[in-house]
Write a structure and sequence with these properties.
The longest helix is centred in the N-terminal third of the chain and has 21 residues. This protein has two domains: 259 residues, 3-Layer(aba) Sandwich (Aminopeptidase); 116 residues, 2-Layer Sandwich (Alpha-Beta Plaits). It is built from nine helices and 19 strands. The chain is α+β, with helices and mostly antiparallel strands and 381 residues long.
Length: 381
């Protein structure tokens, strides 16, 4: 298959996290037929869905270059709002439409075709692999993280990795991600005493301390950012109170927030800041408070050097653009690779990712394949 045909085949599989829907079977057949040693890893954990993963490798020498990505996609939303069935790829005005077109089945197809072409037509010392999960858009528990743990137990070692996430804002070749901010979720549950609003002496309104806590948190100025990272930001994502009538003080109130933070902070230092604010407004009171934290990613930055220069050079040669190094955006599976090897991200335009009528420029798929081949050529020189 060429990259466009393969993209269409992958889109045709409704692989909404964590459903495989045959998408990994297509890739395994294509890679096995072209000399790659393919292994499937299925992981399970209590409270989460079982997830199928694919690791395919060509060669056994060092250096070992890996492409990472995911075949799972988010739900389609309101299907009637799509121009056509989101799992029946369609073309219009030079664009390919379908769920996963941008994030990131086109990139998967591009690097599969790139590695097949490269290994067939080039003599090189080293090995090339692909680690493809179907658990990136979901909990990300039984996917890339566990595959890396397993293959390293078996003696594998990856030297460098490119993750094919959509990194470009508006033009292919604009942006390469060399790091990501960390992500910390926090949830505060405040418990008071329910009662009639006309008798505050007999009630304890949990909304009062919660709003003070929230106000102090969003007033924090964490940092100014740096040459490599944008400023850290705090966003309140949910506020709620226990059910009741309009003349009833609620028994409890809760709030959730997310902090996207750079390397100026750690999860521990941020928790300490938040705990101090909570303590200030609830200590020595009759309020009860429960605080929960969930860290989904640590911040990281890949050091600029030979590896990042190869990617930039390879992108610039194909697109003619001067690609920018960036750490913007959300989290990706690069957060797992960074514990094992140097990692960067490069892929297509991400503007329509997760949207209705998700699409990519068809010509960009072929260009992306050329960029990935160029990266391999320059890497193994």
């Amino acid at each position: 298959m060429n990259a466009i045909e393969l993209t269409k085949s992958l889109i045709s599989c409704p692989s909404i996290t964590p459903e495989n829907a045959g998408v990994l079977d297509i890739l395994q057949e294509e890679l096995s037929n072209n000399g790659f040693d393919c292994k499937r890893y299925k992981f399970a954990e209590e409270g989460t869905a079982d997830v199928d993963n694919l690791f395919a490798k060509y060669g056994n020498d060092e250096p070992h270059f890996c492409f990472g990505g995911h075949t799972d996609v988010v739900p389609v939303g309101e299907q009637n709002a799509w121009l056509s069935n989101p799992f029946e790829p369609s073309e219009k005005d030079g664009k390919l439409y379908g769920r996963g077109a941008s994030d990131m089945k086109s990139a998967i197809a591009a690097f599969v075709c790139a590695v097949v072409d490269f290994t067939k037509n080039n003599k090189f010392k080293g090995s090339v692999s692909l680690l493809i999960t179907n658990d990136e858009e979901g909990p990300a528990i039984n996917g890339t993280k566990k595959v890396l743990e397993e293959i390293y137990k078996n003696g594998e070692k990856i030297n460098s990795c490119v993750v094919g996430e959509p990194t470009c804002p508006s033009k292919l070749g604009e942006m390469i991600k060399i790091g990501r901010r960390g992500s910390l979720m926090a949830k505060f549950d405040v418990f008071g005493k329910q009662g009639h609003v006309a008798y505050p002496q007999w009630t304890l309104n949990p909304i009062n301390p919660l709003t003070k806590i929230i106000n102090d948190i969003i007033s924090l100025k964490l940092d100014e950012g740096s040459d490599d990272f944008p400023p850290s930001n705090i966003e309140i994502v949910k506020i709620s109170a226990s059910d009741g009538a309009t003349n009833v003080v609620p028994h409890s109130a809760s709030s959730q927030l997310n902090i996207r933070y750079n390397v100026s902070h750690t999860a521990v230092s941020l928790k300490n800041k938040l705990n101090d604010i909570v303590k200030e407004h609830t200590e020595d009171t009759n309020y009860q408070i429960n605080t929960e934290y969930y860290e989904t990613a640590e911040p990281f930055l890949t050091k600029k050097g030979k590896f990042t220069d190869i990617i930039k050079k390879s992108v610039n040669e194909i697109t003619g653009l001067d690609a920018e190094f960036s750490t913007t955006g959300g989290t990706s599976d690069a957060r797992f690779f960074k514990d094992y090897c140097e990692v960067a991200e490069f892929g297509l335009i991400g503007e329509t990712a997760h949207q209705v009528n998700e699409n990519v420029n068809i010509e960009d798929i072929n260009k992306l394949e050329d960029i990935y081949k160029n990266i391999l050529i320059n890497y193994f020189k």
